[in-house]
Structures are given as structure tokens and as C-alpha cells.
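Table S2 (text version). Query chain:
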Amino acid sequence: MKTNQLLKSAKIICLSSPFHGQVKDILITDGRIEKIADSIESPQNHETISFPNLHVSLGWIDCKSNLREPGEEWKETLESGAKAGAAGGFTQLIITASTKQPLDSKNRIEFVKNVAKKLPISISAMGTLSHELKGEELSEMFEMSMAGAVAFSDDKQEVSTGLMSKALLYSKNINKLIVSFANDNSLSKSGQIHEGKTSTKMGVKGIPSLSETLRIERDLALAEYHDCPIHFSCISVEKSVELIRVAKAKGLKVTCDIAAHQLFFEDKDASGFDANYKVLPPFREEQDITALIQGLKDGTIDAICSDHTPHDIEDKKIEFDLAQFGIIGLETAFASVNTILQGKLGTNEIVEKFTTGPSNIFGLKKGEIKEGEKANLTLFDPSIQWVFDKSCILSKSKNTPFIGTEFTGKTLGVIC
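Corresponding C-alpha cell output:
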């Protein structure tokens, strides 16, 4: 169904728009922006939308979430994930291929596309880098690319040097991005939280920063050798930011993102053995968070993702060392980032990390906020204060440490 809506007194946040920074009325008819003006009378059959501090931007894109379907639909489905994404302000999700039944074939990519046609927001899929996520041989990358896969990654599974080299070389032929999750499993295996003072006090094996930076150094070397692009997902430590900053200065085709929750928590927050603080990469130290924020400021870090990783209670309410890694993040990504970056990054800069950042990385079509364009918009208030509770969760899973947290900034809806 096409949308007919009138946004009243909306501050436009879109650097490419001639109306950027201005407060305007926006008339949307049959899903397109018909008129932008200081004041517009509401026509018949149009819903009027008005909030005290309404801001509007291009629709936000989440460049990493796992919606569990196919294979673990009791944790999340494409439908429930789409609803959670819309509640968090996202109009498009890029989902990982590491589902229980991996997205490693043309048929599975087409399955996601067919289900997504019926959903309120757009969903695009990555394909696996290796066949069946086994890390042994390349997947059917060409066939999946033709079916609509936007990138290729084995998500948080180990990828050998030889296989990564082959994948990067092959990606040049199909013009699709390889996404790397930097983690040397031989160093991080059995680790529970960041390796440091807190892990020592807790008596648990730590995950060293070195396990991330070694993989980044390796994959940067491979990308330079093959002269092809690479994207690093969910970097988390200070040295990683510096390695990528230097690589960009050298002219390498490298981009990266961070998970929103990495800015909000430190490793010491996991000291109570609450598995809702057990994530991969783990929460790091204050100096790492400072470096991530600086990376966002200077453009080293291109985007912010939710790293939405739903788990049921059986995977979390068990012994800490047996609990699964990951938390849900679609509903809290913007609010958590906007809260922690108050006085450090402006609203324009934050929104860029959810819009043009992801679209540039994955080569997605960019919209504009101007007359005649399709209305693909996120509505939000960057200053409102509110408390996140269980009633805010539309995901099927509830594994989050944010329940009871007071945030600054809230999404008000999407038009997609």
C-alpha cells in the first residue's frame, strides 16, 4: 500500500538535500515526496504526523544483523526482525549468512528476497564466503551474486589465510565486497571477555586485542596484494582503528564499522557474570572506546551497525562460560550511540554513520530528500529522554543489557 502522509515542522538532516538543516513540512503522496515547503495544508486522505522535535533523515541502514531464519525461527524470523528494525529506525537491514541453515546458495538468497517482499522494510542478504560455512572451499559466489547477495562473509567463523586470499581475488570478478570479522580463533578460543584486569579478577580466559589486530594486519596485506576492497565488521580495539587509518592514508580500498554497543559498555561491566554482557568482539577498555569515537570523528570508521544477535533464554541463562555470545541491538543502536556521543559527535555526523556510510560501503542506491524522490525516511527526536524496557522489544529474543537504561534520542517511526 502506498503512503499518503504529511510531516509537519520536520527538521531535515540530509547533507545532500538543499533543505538540510531546515524545518519544513513534507507532503508524501503515493510513496513519493510531492512537496517540501514552510507550511502545507493537509489534503484529504493524508495522515498528518507531528512531534515536538521531529527530525527526518534518509532511511537508516543496518549493515550487520542476524535474523536466524532459516533454521532458528524461535529466536528470530525475517518478519520479527523487520519489525524490530523498523522500531529502531531502520528502513533496510543487511543480514549475515551465518544462519543455522547458511545462506550459501542461490536458492537461500532467493528465499530471503521472496520473504522480504512482504515485509515493512527492505532486507538484503550477504552470502557465505565458504561452502556451508565450513571454511574449506569457496561458496557459489557468482550464483549468489546473480541472485542478489550484496556481499560475502563467513561472519564470525574462522577463515584461513588461503581461503581469504581466494575469496578476495574472486570478488574482483563479480564486483562484490568481502566482509571480514577480525578474530584469530587460535588466540581467542575459550575466551569469555576482553583479556585484561577484569578477566584476571573474574578468573576467566580472556580474548586478547591481538586476536583482532593480527587478523586485520593479515587481511589488509591480502587486500593490498590483490588490489581489491575489503570491509572489516565490528572492530573494537584502539590498534585496529590505527591500522585502518594508516591503510586508508596509503590508498587501500578499506572500510569498517563498529557495533553500537561497543561505545556504551566496558569489559568491567561483565564482572557480574551476566551473560547479557557477553558479546563478540567483547567489550573492551576505556582507551579503546576513546579510539573508536575518534575514528568516527575523523572518518576512519565508516558506519555503525547493530550486530543484532538474538538468543533464547536457554542460551543465556546458563553458566557464563557456556552462554552464547551476542545481544539484540536493532531497537537500541541509535539511542545508545546518540546517548554516549552527546557533546562528542553532532546529529549530522551520527546520522551519516547510519545512512551514507553503509550505502557507500555496500554500493547501495542513495536516495535524497527532495521533491519527486521516493519517500524512504527515518523519523526521530535526538534530544528526548526515555527509558528502554521490555515493552520496547519487538524481537522474539530479549537478550540485552539495556533494559532499564535511560537514553537520549529516540526513533519515532519510518516511512519505507
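Notes on Table S2: The two ends are 11 Å apart (CA to CA). The mean pLDDT is 97.
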